[in-house]
Each structure stands twice: as C-alpha cells, then as structure tokens.
Amino acid sequence: MKKLAAILAVIGILTSCNSGQNAEVQRLQAQVDSLRDNGYRPGLGEFMMGIQVHHAKLWFAGEAQNWELANFEMAEIKETMDGIKQYCADRPEVKLLKLIDPAMDSVNAAITQKNEQQFKSSYLLLTTTCNDCHHATQHAFNVIKVPDTPPYSNQVFTTQ
Ligand code: HEC
Fold this sequence. Notes:
Elements: H1 2-38, H2 44-63, H3 67-87, H4 101-112, H5 116-136
Helix pairs in contact: 2-3, 2-5, 3-4, 4-5
Heme C binds next to helix 2 and helix 5.
C-alpha cells in the first residue's frame, strides 16, 4: 500500500511538472506568435526600392568591368527577391517574380565570363523584364531604365 502511494505521489509530481512545462511552452509560443504578427515586415514597394538601388549600382559596376562588385550587386538583388518571396507571399504579383530568372541567369553568365558586351545586352534584358512584370501587375507607370548617373556620389564603382 505504501509502495502504491509512493508511485501515485511520483506520478502526481511528474504530471504536474509536465503540465507546468506545457503551460510554459504555450506561453512562449504565444509570445513568438505575437512577435511574428507585430514584427516589422517590409512591403513589396520597399523591397522594390532596394532592388532599384542595386539595379542602378549593377550598371556602373559592369560598365567599369568591376566584376566583383557586379557579382555582389546581383547577389543583393537575388537576396531581396528571396525576401519578397518570404515576406510578401500574400501578394498575388509575387507569383510572377520568376519572370526575371532567365534575365538574372544571363547577367550572371556575363559577369562570370567578364564579358562587357554580353553584360550590357543582358542588363537591357533584365531592365525590360522589370518593366514586363510592372506591366503584368498593373504597375506599368513604374518605368525602369538604364541609369545615366551613379545613384550615390560617395561610392567608387571602378576597381581599386
Ligand atoms: C513580380 C513582378 C515584378 C518584377 C520582376 C519586378 N517588379 Fe518592381 N514592382 C512590382 C510591383 C507589383 C510593384 C508595386 C509595389 C507596391 O505595391 O508598392 C513594383 C514596384 C517597383 C518600384 C517602385 C517602388 C516605389 O515604391 O517607388 C520600383 C523602383 C521597381 N519596382 C523596380 C524594379 C526593378 C529595378 C526590377 C528589376 C530588376 C523590378 N522592379 C522587377 C513587380 C515587379
């Protein structure tokens, strides 16, 4: 009888620990969920402005045959697009993002081959594709073009 009481007592302690732990897990999960909901999420337009800057810098890097910088700017564009897929999945336009993939591949190939002519034609293809998607998503008024002047005066685009 004593043994049974001891076993029951242990079971009692174990289940109370367990339910205490469950309550803690639930509390933490609720906190994680609320952080996720209240956390800052950039909008599609903000991601696009990031892409706009990298797109402009990419041109001056490629024109200067600074392939390391051009490669970096391409990686930044790719990373921003991944951010769009992750954070703007609720926007139906995001499904069209893959339109840009062939042009991205083409620019990447030109950079790998350090081919300035190919870079320039691929860059034009990339820029046309930005506009194609803007047309397809009722944002044709956002017109992207090859930049005339570097976006910032405090950055050097030539190789040092
Ligand atoms: C999914 C197709 C798609 C592709 C591909 C795309 N865009 Fe966009 N872009 C959009 C949409 C949709 C908006 C409007 C976003 C919003 O609602 O704020 C936009 C907005 C913009 C804006 C305006 C941002 C602002 O708030 O001023 C710029 C600049 C821009 N895109 C640049 C680019 C560039 C540069 C490329 C190519 C490298 C590109 N976009 C490729 C869909 C696309």
